[in-house]
Design goal:
The chain is mainly beta and 302 residues long. The protein has five helices and 16 strands. The N and C termini lie far apart (74 Å). 40% of the residues are buried.
């Protein structure tokens, strides 16, 4: 039996690495936030608010339906999401569902892990310039990876956005702050960021996120978006970078889109250049209903 010991230790180490890279903090992100280094907590509109900061929903006024699909190479994961967000009313909100299914290959043995999440996000202006929001999620996870247990329950997020000026926002959020059942795939985390728009077509953003349990670690990212306006459409170009000191991993990110008044298609990618060779590619399509002018600071105070 002694020759088996090194093998067991090696598999255990591999499981630890795979487990550390699998949680819904990352699985629920879409192509736009991925493309700018996950730095959108201070400008989390539409479906971005679901995974980063629910308070950002009132930053625009639109009814939008979004569906997305992604693939992650490190564990052959499929990432699926659908949402409906309405920020044209007095209490902006989103309904959403997401699925993450992966098949990590450990020593030639293919295992499986799946996560289903559905819920609702709501936001409201507390005082002029300050927006608050919350998200309730129901999750169900199943896994045959040794050391991981099936789980189901509810978990809750909170967030706040402060509009310092028409061009600068601050955002902060806490994810999985309270849960009815503990799950390693839903660790508690806090994050914050800043977004600046020096000119209407150009946006800069920077975020950071800290896990307060599990494998811990901090994640820092930033990026930029430049929106090219054509006659009947627009092309957003996005680029960024990301570092996770818990994984000792560094990534480059980027993306592109095609935007019209009726629909938008976005593609984003993240590639690991230090610490591994993980690649994530995401794409989504948004269909718009009624769209109103984005609220100014004066309008938020009315």
């Amino acid at each position: 039996m002694r020759p088996l010991v090194p093998g067991i230790v090696a598999v255990t180490c591999a499981l630890g690495i795979t487990h550390a890279r699998a949680d819904h903090l990352d699985d629920q992100l879409g192509p736009r936030e991925i493309a700018v280094g996950e730095a959108m907590r201070a400008g989390a509109i539409g479906a971005i608010a679901i995974g980063l900061n629910p308070s950002g929903l009132p930053l625009n006024r639109e009814l939008v339906f979004e569906g997305g699909y992604g693939y992650r190479t490190s564990d052959s994961a499929s990432l699926v999401s659908v949402s409906a967000c309405d920020s044209t009313n007095a209490a902006p909100g989103c309904f959403f569902y997401s699925y993450a299914g992966s098949h990590p290959d450990l020593g030639g043995m293919e295992l499986s892990r799946s996560t289903h999440v559905g819920g609702m996000a709501l936001s409201r202006m507390l005082v002029p310039r300050v927006l608050l929001g919350g998200t309730v999620k129901y999750f169900r996870t199943s896994s045959d990876v040794p050391g991981e247990e099936d789980a189901k329950g509810f978990t809750f997020d909170l967030g706040a956005t402060v509009r310092l000026t028409e061009r600068i926002n601050l955002g902060v959020s806490g994810q999985n702050l309270w849960s009815t059942e503990e799950s390693a795939q839903f660790p508690r985390a806090i994050g914050g960021g800043v977004l600046a728009r020096p000119i209407p077509m150009f946006t800069l953003s920077f975020d950071s996120r800290w896990k307060t349990e599990g494998d811990g670690g901090a994640r820092f990212g930033g990026g930029a978006e430049y929106f090219i306006r054509l006659r009947d459409m627009g092309i957003p170009l996005r680029a960024g970078a990301l570092h996770d000191n818990g994984l000792d991993a560094t990534y480059v990110t980027g993306g592109i889109g095609i935007a019209t008044m009726r629909f938008t298609i976005d593609v984003g990618a993240r590639h690991e250049i230090r610490g591994g060779d993980e690649t994530v590619i995401l794409a989504s399509m948004r269909l718009f209903g009624p769209r109103l002018a984005a609220p100014s600071l004066g309008a938020l105070g009315e």
